[in-house]
Amino acid sequence: MAGIPRLVTAISQLLLTCIFLTRAVATFTLPDRCPVFFKSHSQRECDPITPASFLPASVRSASKIRSKYVVDNIVFADFLGALNVTQSEFFAPWLGTWPDAIDWTAAVVGTHISGAARSISEDLVFLDSDKDSVADWRRISSLVDKYFAQIIAYYFGQDALTIRNEAYDDILWVVLGWLEAVQFVNTHSDLHYTPAGLDRSEATLGITDEILGGYTRTPGQPYHGTIWIPAFSHRARIFWNLASHGWDTKLCNGGMVWNPRLQPYKNAITNELFIAASISMYFHFPGDNNESPFSNRSDKFNPNDPDAKVPSEARDARYLKAAIEGYRWLRNSNMTNDHGLIVDGFHISGYLDENSNNTSCDVRDEMVFSYNQGVILTGQRGLFDATGASSYLTDGHRLIQNVIKATGYSLRLDNPVDDSLKIRPGVLPRWHGLGRLGVMEEYCDASGTCSQDGATFKGIFFHHLTAF
Ligand SMILES: *[C@@H]1O[C@H](CO)[C@@H](O)[C@H](O)[C@H]1NC(C)=O
Ligand SMILES: *[C@@H]1O[C@H](CO)[C@@H](O)[C@H](O)[C@H]1NC(C)=O
Ligand SMILES: *[C@@H]1O[C@H](CO)[C@@H](O)[C@H](O)[C@H]1NC(C)=O
Ligand SMILES: *[C@@H]1O[C@H](CO)[C@@H](O)[C@H](O)[C@H]1NC(C)=O
Ligand SMILES: *[C@@H]1O[C@H](CO)[C@@H](O)[C@H](O)[C@H]1NC(C)=O
């Protein structure tokens, strides 16, 4: 899908700006989240031995004497521009999808559009409360609704029946996508439509009151988007149930298999997705009493599905358990290389040999892709929020530091390791494992040979980086 490389390039060129932008986001966290970067009153819910900073100790002291980073508003304008191009050139409203996208990349783009709508909604809160702001508020709120309407269209445009028979990673992108849409609706509703009289929480900063001036807010009227929460959550639940059949203990002592119809491959992405989707189900799935397609008959796609009859509730412990077990397996699977980056996955030697009784994951695919360093971050952050165990945060911080290093950027020097002035024309700067000169790159980027898959990876990394 040609729209994505532009979006991805714009975003990845701003690698470091984005990292500091996430600091701005982190100060404005949702109530159930604990800030990682800064001390704040809501840290009371956090583990007291939580790492106080993302930066390694040696860098932290140096950064105190450096001038403060300023959030660059141009990043936000570029983000709106990229969003507009993606949606005006590649989304087809009459089909409710991005026709050039394959199933999984469409699910990912849908996820990003929901995430983007949530960011714009959060930004609305920071509008000044002068007279012009009501007009501004209506303009931006219409922008939010424009993208949300496209997400609703995609709910029907998504080829949900076909994806049921695809690989487990394809199925899991669907779960993350609809949970992201649920989070957008909840955030937008909480920030701007919470009925007066209830605790409106510190997140609104009291500004929306002045902006709205009673103009758009009718007491007792929640955001219209809330009617879609049951539909989105239902699809997330159906797809999580389908994916959970991919966990198997006969091979490699556990782990998700990538595709049940191919020779077993226990890969990073399927396992990271299962962890991230499970912990996101634990936090964001509100429960579901829609029994379709199970009601009074077996699921015709999956007649023996033991989950069909299990009622599903909010904060269901089985999602937390799945995330914890998935993470334990992944962490013990030796999927991390010498750069501290997560490689692609494991095959089993001699699997097709009738005389072999090998069951262990012993043939490692050493390819490194940016998205394999990303999706797990949502898992680690969620597991920390759910359990309070700071090891999940420490693992996440270490991985992010390793990624930055593998782009050729030194946190200690606060500069690329290689001198850009010494690069000769026509010669590529040195490769550091996941990029060069401090810019994240896939292997396929330099030669311009990325498929739609590779072109989508960096956007996925940055989407999940915002969990920190
Ligand atoms: C959005 O993108 C379309 C197509 O690229 C362009 O024609 C339009 O001017 C853009 N709108 C804004 C507000 O940038
Ligand atoms: C469920 O199936 C049974 C037997 O087939 C039938 O008697 C009952 O009315 C059905 N219930 C619903 C809600 O459709
Ligand atoms: C981990 O994987 C590497 C690369 O395949 C291998 O050299 C090493 O022996 C493995 N370590 C363990 C403990 O299995
Ligand atoms: C079984 O696994 C061992 C250890 O990983 C390996 O040396 C051997 O070649 C495998 N057997 C077959 C038949 O591939
Ligand atoms: C695998 O098979 C060999 C003989 O082919 C046997 O000695 C060994 O105990 C078996 N290992 C397991 C784990 O079953």
Automatic annotation (TrEMBL):
<dbReference type="InterPro" id="IPR053169">
    <property type="entry name" value="MUG_Protein"/>
</dbReference>
<dbReference type="Pfam" id="PF03663">
    <property type="entry name" value="Glyco_hydro_76"/>
</dbReference>
<feature type="signal peptide">
    <location>
        <begin position="1"/>
        <end position="26"/>
    </location>
</feature>
<dbReference type="GO" id="GO:0005975">
    <property type="term" value="P:carbohydrate metabolic process"/>
</dbReference>
<dbReference type="InterPro" id="IPR008928">
    <property type="entry name" value="6-hairpin_glycosidase_sf"/>
</dbReference>
<dbReference type="InterPro" id="IPR005198">
    <property type="entry name" value="Glyco_hydro_76"/>
</dbReference>
<keyword id="KW-0732">Signal</keyword>
<protein>
    <recommendedName>
        <fullName>Glycoside hydrolase family 76 protein</fullName>
    </recommendedName>
</protein>
